[in-house]
Amino acid sequence: xxxxxxxxxxxxxxxxxxxxxxxxxxxxxxxxxxxxxxxxxxxxxxxxxxxxxxxxxxxxxxxxxxxxxxxxxxxxxxxxxxxxxxxxxxxxxxxxxxxxxxxxxxxxxxxxxxxxxxxxxxxxxxxxxxxxxxxxxxxxxxxxxxxxxxxxxxxxxxxxxxxxxxxxxxxxxxxxxxxxxxxxxxxxxxxxxxxxxxxxxxxxxxxxxxxxxxxxxxxxxxxxxxxxxxxxxxxxxxxxxxxxxxxxxxxxxxxxxxxxxxxxxxxxxxxxxxxxxxxxxxxxxxxxxxxxxxxxxxxxxxxxxxxxxxxxxxxxxxxxxxxxxxxxxxxxxxxxxxxxx
Length: 341
Known about the structure:
Strand order of the largest sheet: 1-5-6-7
CATH class: Alpha Beta
Shape: globular
Order of helices and strands: EEHEHEHEEHHEEEHHEEEHEEEHEE
Strand content: 25-35%
CATH superfamily: L-arginine/glycine Amidinotransferase, Chain A
Distance between the termini: 31 Å
Number of helices: 9
CATH architecture: 5-stranded Propeller
Structural class: alpha/beta
Helix content: 10-25%
């Protein structure tokens, strides 16, 4: 029997919707709820200018009135319990199987058993049961988060060993076995592993979407620190060297684009360092949304994305509140390709 052909789409391919899981008063956002809820609404409104938004929330009666500026055909609301808001990591991951979009529902463990995830882990299956996700659904077979992988849509997967080889995710698999599973599940031919790089304040064990992202199959935008006095300098220099050694499927070096290094952002309550990164951008139909942090490097980052994505609108989203819970723009979203929502 012929093995089904699988392909993991790139994020820049046409989308049907972006999922957001809204904060609520029983989540870690409770102390910032009145501030952060309008930000989620603003992000939903921004996305809805280009495509549909799927909002998962604790209480429809609370959320529906907040979305009154969005045309009714540009959003859907699902009332499903959640632990938190990180849709990138509890959302379903879409893979093409013999040309049919299929949702893979991976096990979400709260980033290696760091935080409760029992409700988040059921969101994708409940969306499917409600008929909101119009694609077949299969178990992913691994503990894996969407923020931990990057696809070029052409058979190459980019990831970090710190995350995917975490002993609290899939302790029964070594590196080679993990790679074999990734190739089988996603239909990829190659897995590029980064063994270096991190951001202080990050809870995810160095998700790739905080460090290095495909802009297109030949281009990788990545975090670079030019300050030798910064704690990140050494690890990110080693990561840059790894990226320089990577090759495309055709054997040519990648076009590597260093992202600006944002001025240090500290939590206003206890002063710990927050994981501000411009790598946490979001592709949507016709646009790219870029996180900003109220620092001088924001304008430089936005100008860079204008050059990297000349055929897309570039929109800055102030993510200072998001990083106070140690994630950013890409982390709170999950895209679904055309036909899924």
